[in-house]
Queue: 3 jobs
Job 1
Amino acid sequence: QKQPAEALRVWREIAAGPRRTAESLASVARLCSKFGYRAEAADLIREACELSTDDFALRLTAAEYLSAVQNFDKSLALLMDAERLAETEEERDVVIRNRLDVLRESGKLQAETAAMAARIATLAEATEQDWILLARYYEATEAIDEATAAADRALRINERSIPALALAARLREAAGDYAKSAEYSRQLAITDRRSATTHLKNVATLE
């Protein structure tokens, strides 16, 4: 069994010289992470991101590794970059969830939520997306009443918004208002026909 220093040297050779690509660096970074070499994994994955400027998944992994070594600012910067590269609602949702995790781990979630609320309060016309995002942040801080109020503001702008209805249903359930949560799930069954069966099952569970 190789000693740590020797193992790291051998692994680094995998991505040395002409073999130094984003893919090889990311592979070695994953190997380092698997065996607990977090600092080395973070350095390598960051190098990989510098070589590959349009890889969404790579930035998610890099943000995770940077957060693991408490380089939260760089982790958040990578998530901002990933958000720019996101092409679907699912990918954008992953970025938001990961950002909330990093902010929570860094101890900055409360302050960021307060700053976002203050910014939205100054807007002449906050958008549906503004209110949904604020609700997500409040939810992450376990401020369910404030989250619910923000989700309701999003629904005032667009009462058929699937993300807002789903969030409102989840928040009402968390608050113990099962009747209202079921009502939102019924609306989702009509609006989000692709997942109608799932929403109707939720109604049955809530009632």
Job 2
Amino acid sequence: RREMRNAPEWCITPMTAIQIEQLYEKGLSISSRGFQSPSDLRNYYKNKFGEDSLLLQLRQSIHTDVRNFPIESFSTFVDYFVKKGKKVFFIPDVENPTGQDIFLKFGAEKLIAPSYDYEHRLACAEATKLNVIWIGGVVAPLQFSDARFVSFGLINKDSNICTEQYFSRKGPTVGEQPPWFNEGKYYDWRPSDEVDAHYLIETVSRKFE
């Protein structure tokens, strides 16, 4: 049994990212997707979303808010895409189910069930054209699914599990896309305090069109 001594948990516990990278360096790979939603749920959300939808999955913890998404920038983002005629949906953080209701006034639609049921969350993620993520633990399984996404907020100097030094020890490699990503997945490594509405719109537009 490992002795923790005075080191915090995040300094000790192995993360799979760097281990998987090492497997790929040796010529190995992941042979199948790890997570897939029930087909009936997936089809339900495909019918609901249509062919041209965005789904927001944004971290908004009420207990540890240092890694939360910038709500003003995303409000501008939602307003922009709704006015362009896109369908925009959002799954509120399970810790804060009303915290993103400001998006409603810009024309986005709120999805409650996926906040509490992961089969619904995964089905939504697979059914939409593109997921827009602000990184958090609840969306981690999506990297091993067929969901398409662009993920922001990975580098955060105010969080000791989101610094470049942390990723250099635990992975994945900063500035690169993990080798297990299939088509349609993208980690955006821009520091979180440099991600504004203009950058969000520009980046997602490139991935969405």
Job 3
Amino acid sequence: VSELRARAASKFFKQTIEDWNEGLAALDRAVLLSPGDGMSLAMRAQSRLNLSGVMFANETPEVLDQLGRDLDVAVAECPTSDFVFWARGAYRLKVKRDLTGAASDIARSREINPNFIGVVDLIAQKAFLEGDYDGALEALTAYEEMGSGDPFRVNRLCFNARILLGAGEAEAAHVAALEASDLSPMDRGLQLLKALACEKIGDKAGL
């Protein structure tokens, strides 16, 4: 089971749909072998939500409810895991829009491991949903130290650009959007984001 989880983790960091599908298959196998393994359940739930998100697919209410139950089991089985609380917090925030529940899981994850960088995204996304753009930007400064070593830099830049646009900081949004679109020139969504940022500052050449 641990080998299957390790395989899934390595596939996740490759950041392709094919690798993510293979990672999810490995986690399905891990859960089949050990149905009550909390870490496998949490990783599988997060993996499935990631895949449906990038593919713009809507899971059925039944599937989403089952993922929520799996994450509750994971929390019960792994009460000292920062990742498990983070995974349930992400589910509560993104699926249920339960800001109070997400805040509780964020707090517990940080209590277990104050240095767990993954929780930064949840803090920023929660602030963004609450309209607290300054709070979201402040949270995301934690990633600045990672620089080019951040495997999710394009995603971070995209999120930064969206927050900056919401905060009315068009110039800064333009810088983030340009860098993201340069790093991933074939991503149509990023090109549209760049166009929006260019339009906001009157950069007709960038359009």
